[in-house]
Amino acid sequence: MAARGRAGHLGLALNEALDRFAALEPQQAELVKLRYFVGLKIEEAAEILGISPATAKRWWTYARAWLYEVIQKGADGRRP
Questions:
Q1: Per-domain residue ranges for the chain?
Q2: CB-based contacts of 48: which residues, under 8 Å, 6+ apart?
Q3: Could you give the CA distance from residue 10 to residue 43 in angstroms, rounded to a whole number?
């Protein structure tokens, strides 16, 4: 039961962080959705977004770091 609670919290935190990221970087957030939720490879997502795979890799790296930082800090801006 505790593991489900942590997983649910992480899912909620990811969703909230992704919403914030989408407000700042909508195309990069779309890449995250295609990779994380749809399961596409970098090359597949790049083709859909009309960008090069190299650009998609840079965006993916940046998005992961940004989302990780926001989730680690928590909703109130402090680390949990």
A1: 2-73
A2: 34, 40
A3: 27
Distance separating alpha carbons of residues 76 and 80, to the nearest angstrom:
9
Residue in 20, 14, 28 with CA at minimum distance from that of residue 56: 28
Residue with tokens 């998005």: 63
**pTM for the full model?**
0.79
Architecture category of domain 2-73 in CATH: Orthogonal Bundle (1.10)
**pLDDT (tens digit per residue) in 59-70:** 999 999 999 999
Residue 45, C-beta contacts closer than 8 angstroms, at least 6 positions apart: 31, 34, 35, 38, 56
